[in-house]
Design a protein that fits this description.
It contains 5 helices and 16 strands. By secondary structure, the chain is α+β, with helices and mostly antiparallel strands. It is elongated.
Length: about 300
């Protein structure tokens, strides 16, 4: 393609009027001016301007915190626009462009299972060139207080530079906490302290389990008791069938399924470290995405109802 001024310069160079020195000087000056114009066009004026438009645009629409099997997650929902000429794979902004740090340390990317309320499948939409959609960034928190510095940086559409798209400090104290809701009820009917007839102190829990879910389920499949004494988790205990406190029906109901709305009485036993120190009891929703503790209770062992002791 002919650059501006090239034709004119060629025309001037073809003139050879040696008789008129004045005209020659004018033509030489014009020739140099044309060459300067050609060079200026090639080096500056005709060079395309560098783009300042990022590959993606994004804005935060929601943040929330959720406990999972892999730790506590900070979730950032994003509205995203694809400014590039290529389709954007599902979840690309959250996985590739988004970064977060806490106390100066970069946070690792996290994952949400589909049963977490608000989780976006595959981390969000695949977005066509020029299109918009939803994406989600997930990070494993190192602690649940303080602030998290969240950023999105992206290349410009001509790959000439990297620009900041989003920069925000997130105060974790103001972030919504998402929790599961148990699909059952458990009541503690009685707490007994006894021995197993062989010198081991036992804590016996008598409870009632009610299934509120749409499908049949049992106490043993949905509830995980965790009991601690002096900071040590108690082992499951065994109450002999001929023990005065043994309830055959309750003990047999632990893994018996019941339908929605039905209830069963259950009995479980644990080995005590001693018969005096209080026991910290947690009942955990074993089927929940966040392993939620739905009942937290301190049992004063020394004042609990003593059960009849086993015969020697």
């Amino acid at each position: 393609m002919e650059k501006p001024g090239e034709g004119e310069c060629a025309s001037l160079l073809s003139g050879h009027d040696r008789k008129d020195d004045g005209m020659k000087r004018i033509k030489m000056a014009a020739m140099f001016a044309c060459l300067a114009a050609v060079l200026a066009c090639g080096l500056l004026a005709c060079s395309p301007a560098k783009s300042t438009t990022p590959m993606v645009e994004a804005s935060i629409t929601r943040t929330f915190i959720v406990d999972t099997y892999d730790g506590t997650m900070l979730v950032v929902d994003l509205d995203v626009k694809n400014n590039s000429e290529m389709s954007m794979p599902a979840g690309m902004v959250g996985l590739t462009y988004a970064k977060a740090s806490q106390n100066g340390q970069q946070l690792s990317s996290g994952f949400l299972s589909d049963d977490v309320p608000g989780a976006l499948a595959s981390g969000g939409d695949a977005i066509a060139p020029g299109g918009s959609g939803k994406n989600q960034a997930v990070f494993v928190l190192s602690q649940q207080d303080g602030t998290v510095d969240f950023k999105i940086e992206a290349e410009t559409t001509d790959y000439s530079n990297v620009v900041e798209v989003v920069s925000q400090s997130i105060d974790l104290a103001s972030v919504e906490k998402v929790q599961s809701e148990p699909e059952f009820d458990v009541t503690v009917d009685d707490v007994l302290v006894t021995d197993d007839g062989e010198g081991k102190n036992l804590l016996v829990l008598e409870m009632t389990f009610t299934n509120n879910s749409d499908s049949a389920a049992s106490f043993g499949s949905l509830v995980r008791p965790a009991l601690f004494q002096n900071g040590v988790e108690l082992k499951s205990g065994y109450l002999p069938y001929n023990h005065p406190a043994y309830d055959n029906e309750r003990s047999s109901n632990t893994y018996t399924d019941v339908k929605q709305g039905a209830s069963l009485a259950v009995q479980v036993a644990f080995e005590l470290v001693d018969a005096e120190t209080p026991v910290e009891m947690e009942l955990i929703d074993a089927a929940s995405f966040d392993q939620r503790v739905f009942l937290d209770k301190t049992i004063e062992v020394g004042t609990s109802t003593p059960a009849p002791e086993a015969s020697a």
